Each structure stands twice: as structure tokens, then as C-alpha cells.
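Internal tracking record. Fields below are filled automatically when a chain is submitted to the structure queue. Please do not edit lines marked as system-generated. If the sequence contains nonstandard residues, flag them in the REMARKS field before resubmitting.
Queue: standard
Priority: normal
Entity type: single polypeptide chain
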Amino acid sequence: MCEARLQQHTAYLEGLIAMVPPKYYLPPNPEEMAKKFQKHARSGDRAGFEGKKQKFLN
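SYSTEM-GENERATED OUTPUT FOLLOWS
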């Protein structure tokens, strides 16, 4: 009785977990995260930043 009930609960929980895509509960790949946040960084943008920084500091 107890073992059958445990198997039913296990099957139910596994079904719930199967409905959620792994990308929502597994940690992100560090390389993909770096690409995501650095895709707009260019070498020319840094020169513009330095000019704004100097203007602000003066």
C-alpha cells in the first residue's frame, strides 16, 4: 500500500518536472552569459566613454 502510493507520488512529481524546460532550473552556461552581456561592447565605445569620463571629471 505505502509503496504503491509512493510510486504514484513519484510519477506525479516527475510529470510536473517534465513540464518545466531545463533552462529555468539549471544554471546558465558562463560562456553564453558573457556573450549575452558583451555583445554591444566595441573598442570604439571605450574611446567615447573615456571622453565623457574626462569631461565629467573636469
